[in-house]
Amino acid sequence: MKIVRYVLLLLAALSFVYPFIWMISASLSSEHGIGSLTLLPVDLTLRNYTTVFERIPLGRAFVNSLLVALVTTSLVVVLGAMVGYALARLRFRGRNAIFYLIIFTMTLPFQITLIPNYITMVKLGWVDTYFALIVPFVMNSLAVLLFRQAFAGLPQALIDAARIDGCSELRIIFQILLPNILPTVLTVTILTFMGLWNEALWPLIVIRDESTMTMPQMVTLFSVGGRADAQLGVKLAAAVMLALPILIVYLFFQKHFIRSMASSGLKD
Amino acid sequence: MKKLLPYWLVSPYILYFCVFIAFPVVFSVVLTFHSWNIISPMEFIGLDNYIQLVNDRLFWQALYNTLRFLVVHIPLQIVVALALAEFLNQKIRGQAFFRGAFFLPVIVSGVVVTILWQQLLGFNAGILNRGLTALSLPKIPWLEDPDIAMYAIALMATWKNVGLYVILFLVGLQTVPVQYYEAADMEGATHWQKFRYITLPMINPTIFMVVVLSTIGGFSLFIEPYIMTEGGPLNSTLSAVMYIYKQAFQYYHMGYSATLGFFFALLILGVVAIQKRYVEQEV
């Protein structure tokens, strides 16, 4: 019985892992070798990769993606911690109102704000700029709620002691409290970074200029727009390069990734 | 000064809320009564957009496509995720490896998964059809047949997301008290009986969470059909978001596109509210 269970699990795991292995080895194969189902590349070649770089400025898109994801994620952590701290530890008029606004924001489908937000970008003159990719994402309701919850769980003595020592509130947040809630910081970082790295719809809307495009957008247009011709290997190579950075980070932080996603699904 | 501090700290949220939530929501309502191509001035047209929406066969087709997607995607997602979670919830070696494997597609961009599955679902060279051929079964035109393409995309979406729900179910399964199973063992319950009468009722909240999350996910479907089939064949995989996108950025019908978005968002809120209400009754 136990063996059956292992075999079934192994088969299931294989069906999730094997396509990725196939994708990587196919991207390293020559065009006629792609049809095969082997684990290892057929006629090992980097042609597909060099072709991608010849046809689209993917290097530039990589830098754009990295820049946008890093800057935005940092801002989400900083701003989310500020708002979360105020909501968790300070008493002020309108605190509950803001809390409910955040809950309301989270339930609002993005389809309703999509077109008006694009128009805002046009009116601000932000189309084809990094601002359009960064500013609408610097605040994240889920991040605020996660920070609020984590800050609420810390002992008041920690804050009192820091205040007696004459710490400013910002120093209390970032120097005293944040190091005590590193798992939450990591969760917010992983969720935000992953979401931004993989986001394709919004860039497709606000960016037309190739030099500002992010990786998922570039790869999407490459794959839909016909510049990959019908060459499967070239499309796959582009997809592999889009997946690789996240896959590498995932290999190192697997446990944290899974924990983050589990906590994102659990609404309180 | 001290009194102002909390407001200073929450000001980024207020600003964000005003610019990216409150204004767009109000403005989208205003837009629904206008015709606008962004360049020339807005023109008030009353309820024309709504009349157009009611008569727009393509929009209803897109909604129908979403429905077909959800009907396959949600049950499949729950059954597969629950089965895998049940297997993983026992004493098993290599837990971390299995979880890591199922989770792999979750972290990768939908763009990658779609390009990959485009090959897997190919009629002649695709792995799935080769498998069928090897079993001497007929090949399936996964992406070529309008009656099948949306279900093929639902299959792919399940493969992509199921790892997340495996994790959520595992969390849920671990909240079931062991005593219940012990008591059932004393009574001589079978494995299936234990699952049916203890596990299933106890993880009901997780099941409904999965239903709500995959409903919202299904309603946001865009990049997968956009890359895979560009909405075809015969608009059979045109999703609502894709249609909203097309109206705005191919035809520059901003007012009409906003109307579609507004109507669609209300629909989502309604569906999710009904689901939530049902959960609250059940629990």
Description:
The complex is a heterodimer of chains A (268) and B (283). Helices cover 72% and strands 0% of the residues of chain A. Chain A is mostly helical. Chain A has a domain of 179 residues: MetI-like (MetI-like fold), CATH 1.10.3720. The longest helix of chain A is centred in the last third of the chain and has 34 residues. Chain A is globular, with a radius of gyration of 23 Å. The two termini of chain A are 39 Å apart. Chain B has 283 residues and is an all-alpha fold. In chain B, strand 1 and strand 2 form a beta hairpin. The longest helix of chain B has 32 residues. The radius of gyration of chain B is 23 Å and the shape is globular. Chains A and B meet through helix 1, helix 3, helix 4, helix 5 and helix 10 of A and helix 1, helix 3, helix 4, helix 5 and helix 7 of B. Chain A: One of its GO terms (biological process) is transmembrane transport. Chain A: One of its GO terms (cellular component) is plasma membrane.
Features:
heterodimer; A: 268 residues; mainly alpha; MetI-like fold; B: mainly alpha; two-stranded antiparallel sheet; 13 helices
CATH topology descriptor of the domain at 59-216 and 242-262 in chain A: MetI-like fold
Q: Biggest interface pair, residues each?
A: A-B, 83 and 84 residues
Q: Give the SSE string of chain B.
A: HEEHHHHHHHHHHHH
Report the major sheet of chain A.
none
Helix content of chain A: over 70%
CATH class descriptor of the domain at 59-216 and 242-262 in chain A: Mainly Alpha
Sketch the major β-sheet of chain B.
2 strands, antiparallel
* 3D shape of chain A: globular
What percent of residues of chain B are in strands? under 5%
Count helical runs of chain A.
13
What string gives the helices and strands of chain A in order? HHHHHHHHHHHHH
Structural class of chain A: mainly alpha
The pLDDT mean of chain B sits at 91
Termini gap of chain A: 39 Å
Proportion of residues in extended strands of chain A? under 5%
How do the strands of the widest beta sheet of chain B line up side by side? 1-2
For the record, the CATH architecture of the domain at 59-216 and 242-262 in chain A stands as Orthogonal Bundle
Structural class of chain B: mainly alpha
User: Mean of residue pLDDT of chain A?
Assistant: 90
Radius of gyration of chain A: 23 Å
